[in-house]
Amino acid sequence: MTPDATGKRWHDMGGDLAHPLAGPIPDGDHDFALWEKRVDALVILAGLKGVFTVDGLRRVLEDMGEDAFETMTYYERWVASLNQNMLEQGVYSVADLGARMAEVQARGTTYADATDAGA
Amino acid sequence: MPHDHHDHAGLSPSGHPYREDQDNSLSYWQAMEIAVRELMIEKGIVTAEEVAAQIDAMDARDPSQGAAVVARAWTDPAFRERLLADGSAASAEMGFDVGPMKLIAVENTADVHNVVVCTLCSCYPRNLLGLPPDWYKSRAYRSRTVREPRKVLAEFGLTLPENVTVRVHDSTADMRYIVIPARPDGTDGLDEAALAELVTRDSMIGVGVAKTG
Amino acid sequence: MQALEPGTPVRVRRMMPPGHVRTPAYLRGKTGAVERVLGPFGNPEQLAYGHTPDRLPLYRVRFRLGDVWPDAATPDDTLDAEIYAHWLEAL
């Protein structure tokens, strides 16, 4: 009486013992970089400001697919989802983002250079 | 950590290499973070001060907050009752705001052991425990815990007798969970602050037990 | 839908729609009992797409591990999950 799994998506992983990565629980932990903490803060604040919901965050993460889960880090996925939600909300446009990212990348070659110049 | 030691150095929870957090060269995603943040500030959604204050608030959160709640529950039976009835309200009494999500406290006893997982994403009581450890977000933990919880617990060094029921909690929606571990024997003489020192992060997720001293 | 009392036996609907839902696939079609009643909370299936959500009861449902996984090594261990009202049918 196992339900038909057609339509089950990658993130819905409870019980998937057969998945090649469902092995031993991985060890270790790591701290987060400043840019990652900023992503986390923006996500929480956008929720508090009512321009964003945690389900909107999750929906975009889920739609990114399993490849993103395996190849991007946690906060890379979060910033991609935050951005997608801000675009959908009309907070800024794709053109705004594209121009700003190019400007940021022109400020310097390290995160510290690029972020401080805009502060 | 006390569980299986495999060579995961430099690998993500799902077994892929980590990208450097503080990459010397500005990454695409870092540039996106800067751009998104600046645009959100310019459009009046947030202020730079709010972002900084939120980071400070998250940096200040760690498992000691959850441990203080557990130690209070161990020493104050009326508080324990309130915590089990309404985890959010009881935590707020101690000055810990658990945010928009509701907190459910589940208690380990001689007959029941609770363990928390989120199979759909990685929901975690971050306002009481800080940010989740990497393994909590891993495919291995998320997929296996709801199906073979005792095998998962054994990898953390926790083997439970058969007469103890394991209760797995899948945080699927608006609740967040904290496990109240059993108070260790021989701690009658300890005050609340000393007891809180015994309460580990893993014991509040349910993959461990409180230290005995 | 009438509010379900704690203890009510329920089955999780077997629907498999695409899109953002918070009912895990491994529980679809499985039978458990209401452990407690929560909410109301906004329907995440509307929140995810930027719509004003309906407010729904949310239930914590307790399942026997053996009722979720026929091959469970310890079938009397339990699994609790939060399931929104529209995903449950009372038995």
UniProtKB/TrEMBL annotation, chain A:
Coiled coil: none annotated. Residues 9-109 form the Nitrile hydratase beta subunit-like N-terminal domain. Gene3D superfamilies: Nitrile hydratase, beta subunit. InterPro entries: CN_hydtase_beta-like_N, CN_hydtase_beta_C, Elect_transpt_acc-like_dom_sf. SUPFAM superfamilies: Electron transport accessory proteins. Pfam families: NHase_beta_N. This is Nitrile hydratase, beta subunit. It comes from Jannaschia donghaensis.
From TrEMBL, chain B:
Pfam families: NHase_alpha. Its EC number is 4.2.1.84. Residues 29-208 form the Nitrile hydratase alpha/Thiocyanate hydrolase gamma domain. Fe(3+) binds at C118, C121, S122, C123. GO terms for molecular function: nitrile hydratase activity; transition metal ion binding. It catalyses: an aliphatic primary amide = an aliphatic nitrile + H2O. Keywords: Iron, Lyase, Metal-binding. Residues 1-22 are annotated as: Disordered. The keyword Transcription does not apply. Belongs to the nitrile hydratase subunit alpha family. NCBIfam families: nitrile_alph (TIGR01323). This is nitrile hydratase. It comes from Jannaschia donghaensis.
UniProtKB/TrEMBL annotation, chain C:
The keyword Lyase applies. Keywords: Lyase. The keyword Metal-binding does not apply. It is an enzyme of class 4 (lyase). Residues 5-89 form the Nitrile hydratase beta subunit domain. InterPro entries: CN_hydtase_beta_dom_C (IPR024690), Elect_transpt_acc-like_dom_sf (IPR008990). GO terms for molecular function: nitrile hydratase activity. Pfam families: NHase_beta_C (PF02211). Its EC number is 4.2.1.84. Residues 1-24 are annotated as: Disordered. This is High-molecular weight cobalt-containing nitrile hydratase subunit beta. It comes from Jannaschia donghaensis. The lineage of its organism: Bacteria, Pseudomonadati, Pseudomonadota, Alphaproteobacteria, Rhodobacterales.
